[in-house]
Amino acid sequence: MITLRKDLDLIANLVEDNSKVIDIGCGNGELLNFLSKNKNSKIQGLEINQKKVNKCVSKGLSVIQGDADKDLGLYPEQSFDYVILSQTIQATLEPNKILTELTRIGKRVIVSIPNFGFWKVRLDLLIKGKMPITSKLNSTWFETENIHLCTISDFTDLCDQLNLKIKQTVTIASNKQKRFSGKPNKSENIFAEEAIFLIQN
Amino acid sequence: MNEEHKKNDCLFYNDPESLLLESGQIINGHDIAYKTYGTLNSKKDNAILICHALSGDQYVASPHPITKKEGWWERMVGKNKPIDTNRFFVICINVLGGCMGSTGPASFNPETNKVFAVNFPIITIADMVKAQVRLIDNFGIEKLVSVIGGSMGGMQALEWAASYPERLKSAIPIATSPRHTAQNIAFHELGRQAIMADVNWNAGNYKDKNTNPSKGLSIARMTAHVTYLSEASLTKKFGRKLQDKTDLGFGFDADFQIESYLRHQGHTFVDRFDANSYLYITRAMDYFDLEKTHKKSLTEIYANSNLKFLIVSFTGDWLYPTSENLMIVRALSAGGVDVSFVEIESDKGHDAFLLDEPEFDVCLDGFLKSL
């Protein structure tokens, strides 16, 4: 049995067995490996960093090098049961366009984000007057890849604007998770460190 | 059968049926020379076909009968190597039109009692593959674990996957392209012109006269060899170093090491390669254009193919650069096909796929283990 990072484990729980899944920004392929072995998923990965791609392929995972901002157009409509974008949307150039693309290529979309509205983040900015550094946001402002950070409310607003239906939300704070059918409670925008959304067309 | 090849350490398959070529011409009773490594299991489901490149042959993992050098991919194929012969039954076939035992322009034409020479029909990559399929059929193998090849070998792998997807579990085209570019054709044309400009070529009938257009073939090889390397690898290996000299010779002898190296490459090549074969095989590569042959877009050719692909390119390869390989990756992704793609960092040029690139080995090994 493979043990997964907590947030990846929660994502994996949202995926039904025997599905066709693409992980955009799959990193070293941890989630894909789990899904292929434990959920019998037919997997595909897209990763921008060639070194990480090679690592995935050497584990026998089907992964190609590509850029979420440029390459999603390659995939035909509704060609995957699930499209997963884990902790990646905040690092893309045009999150709104990407979200639209994800729902075009997948029947269901799972997006996870670090919540910039988390109270520790707010406190950091309020007290120190500096860009927050937390366990989820652990780079300095000049090194971070996160160019489009958002809060849970920002994300749900964008989904509304794009007419996307959030079916389920899982929020995480200090290793405890809460499940919501549909959007999460407003207070999660303060208390959750991370959120996972299941979006269905 | 080609008498001179009987003594070679390889196997032969004489195809009892004629082969209808892409040009519309027909070859009758052709021979296919091949080598195998490992053991075919009782279910016949552990076979891998390795396709060789332009100047390669069936001696992928055993010494070459003429040069006595080790097999051209011995570092990749063998016991406990990425293409592990403990697990796989490996077949490597000299291409149709080749000169290491398979029927080609240097073969004897039984219908005329003469060597074919330029009367040999023009063959294509699809024809080479068609001939390979016959041998695989003869083995009783329904499905290959993989078809693997670099450069022209990659073209064959792509053609296999396009025409016979149900016969494959996976395909691994390496450092290749879905069609030959103008630059690829241009370099081949230089080689062919060099051969045909040699007075000993004699309109292709040099075997009759017992001569050999070795100058022409050797220049063809020298030109091609440069395209397999890179500026970085040439500079690293040779720089401006002089050959057995302390100063310039002020003449046209091989002053520089690179000159001497290329001359050596040319000389040794003519001992093992037939000039007409070189014309035919380079032509087959130039004619290679999957979309034209299959009259469909690349995406349509492979759409919903039920096999796994691994595409490999090398950063220093300017002959079949990453961009060419990516065309295949993109088409496969668009067609909903299971595809992996790795680009290996290397300054060794196109030849990198034959050389020591440990990261490539690890990727290939991981992919094959996942099958």
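qc> Residues 315 and 345 of chain B are 5 Å apart (CA to CA).
qc> done
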